[in-house]
Amino acid sequence: MFDKVKYLYECMQAGKALQDAGVWSGRADLIAKLTALLMAASGLAEAFGYDLRLSGTDVAAVAQGLGVLAVTLVNVLHVASNKEAGKR
Q1: Which pLDDT score, from 0 to 100, does residue 48 have?
Q2: Is the pTM of this model over 0.85?
Q3: Dihedrals phi, psi of 23, to nearest 5 degrees
Q4: Between the CA of residue 61 and those of 1, 23, 75, what are the distances in Å?
Q5: In sequence order, what are the residues at sequence separation of 6 or more whose Cβ sits closer than 8 angstroms to the Cβ of residue 80?
Q6: CA angle (23 as vertex; 67, 25 as ends), nearest 5
Q7: Residue pLDDT, tens place only, 34-62
């Protein structure tokens, strides 16, 4: 377990995740889709009479938080379930 934490720290220090433009693009797409989905859900709720009092900034912040949570969960599950993940 500590070997994986050590490797994660080394990866962050080396900046390996920053070099992959596809990862950043995918995460930005995820945030945009979550924002659109939450804005639509908020508009639909207001159409049915629920007053959520959410601004676009509120919805974007929630979408970013959900996006970070989803990416973190997927990464943890990948490392936990793949014996080859984390090996050099």
Answers
A1: 93
A2: no
A3: -65, -45
A4: 32, 20, 21
A5: none
A6: 75
A7: 888 888 888 899 899 998 888 888 888 88
